[in-house]
Amino acid sequence: MEDTVKAELLDALRPIVKKKDLLEGAPLSAYTTLGFGGPAEVLCEVTSAEQLLEIMRAATRLGVPVNVLGNGSNLLVRDGGWPGLTLHLGDGFAEVSPPVPLPDGRFAITAQAGAPLTRLANVAADAALTGLEFAAGIPGTVGGGVVMNAGAYGGELADVVDSVTCATLAGEVRHYGSAEMAFGYRRSRLSAPGAAPEIVLAATVALRPGDEETIRVTMREFNARRREKQPLTLPCCGSTFKRPPGRFAGTLIEECGLKGYRVGGASVSAQHAGFLVNDQEGTAADYLKLIEDVRRMVFDKTGVWLEPEVRIVGVDAAPPGI
Ligand SMILES: Cc1cc2nc3c(=O)[nH]c(=O)nc-3n(C[C@H](O)[C@H](O)[C@H](O)COP(=O)(O)OP(=O)(O)OC[C@H]3O[C@@H](n4cnc5c(N)ncnc54)[C@H](O)[C@@H]3O)c2cc1C
Prior knowledge:
binds flavin-adenine dinucleotide, globular, 6-stranded antiparallel β-sheet, Uridine Diphospho-n-acetylenolpyruvylglucosamine Reductase, domain 3, 24% strand, single chain, Uridine Diphospho-n-acetylenolpyruvylglucosamine Reductase, domain 1, alpha+beta, Uridine Diphospho-n-acetylenolpyruvylglucosamine Reductase, domain 2
C-alpha cells in the first residue's frame, strides 16, 4: 500500500475499530496453524457484522485489497506478508444460536463466521441433532469452513448448510441458499484464489434429530482416528493437497518414498505423508519449495499432478539488501 493510502485507511478505520483491535505489521505467523508468514500491513480484529460492513466500504473506496482470516488452519502466508488489509474474524464474531425448529422436522442453527466448527458441532450434539459429527475435529471457523466446504469421514458442510450470509466488497449484505454456494470438493463460490471476493458473516445449518449418545460416540471415534493417524502436535494445515480423483494424495506421496523428505524447516510428515509440516521453524519459502518438489516427484513417478488444498496468499519476502 502506498503511504498516503495507508494513512487514509487508518484515518477511516480509527473511528470504527478500537485501538487495541487495529494493528500495523502484526506477524501473520501468529494467526496461522503453519506458524510462518510475514506481516499484515494493517490488521483489524473484527467484532461485529455492522463494523465489518463499514470497514469493507472504507477499504473498497481506497482500493485496498482485503484478506480474511478465520483460524488460519488452511492458510499459507508468504514470507513478505499481506500488503493490504487483513481482517481477523475470531472470538468477537463467534455466536452460535440455539436450535430453531423448521416445518420439515429439522432444526436450524445459525453461527457467526468466527465461531469454531467444533463449537457448532458440539451445540448440535448437545441438542441431539445429527449431521455435523464429521466436523468435530476440524480446527477451522464456520467462515473458513464454508469457503473451503470443509469435510471429513464422508461428510462435508455442503450436506448441512441451508444458507449463508455474506458481505460484499461494497459493504452490502447478500444471502445465498445452499445451491447458490456452488459447493464442490473443498471449494465454494467464495474460494477463488487471491483477495476475498465476499466475506462470510454467518451460516445456517439444518440438522435432523438423532440420538445424542450415538452422535457423541461417532465424534469421539473420528477424533481418535485423527489422533492416531495425523501429526496433530506439529504446525501444519491438515492435508496439504486435495485428493486426486480416485486416489489419496498421502498414499501417492508415501509410495514415492517421500515420507520425511525435507526442505529447510519443512518436511513431509513421517506419520502421514499427506501432511506437510513445519517441524523445524521453517519459512513459507521452504514450505512452497517442499510443495513444488513433492508435486514434481509425484508427477514424474505416477503421472498425477497434485493440487494444493491449502490457500496460498501474500507476497514473497524482499531479497536481502532491498
Ligand atoms: C490438524 C488439521 C486438520 C485438518 N483437518 C481437516 C479436515 O479433516 N477436513 C477439512 O476440510 N479441512 C481440514 N483442515 C483444514 C482447515 O481446518 C479447514 O480448511 C477449515 O475449514 C479452514 O477454516 P479456517 O477458519 O481456519 O480458515 P482459514 O485458514 O483462516 O481460511 C481459509 C480460506 O478461507 C478464507 N476465509 C476464512 N474466513 C472467511 C470468511 N469469514 N469469509 C470469507 N473468506 C474466509 C480465507 O481467506 C482463506 O482463503 C485441517 C487443518 C489442520 C491444521
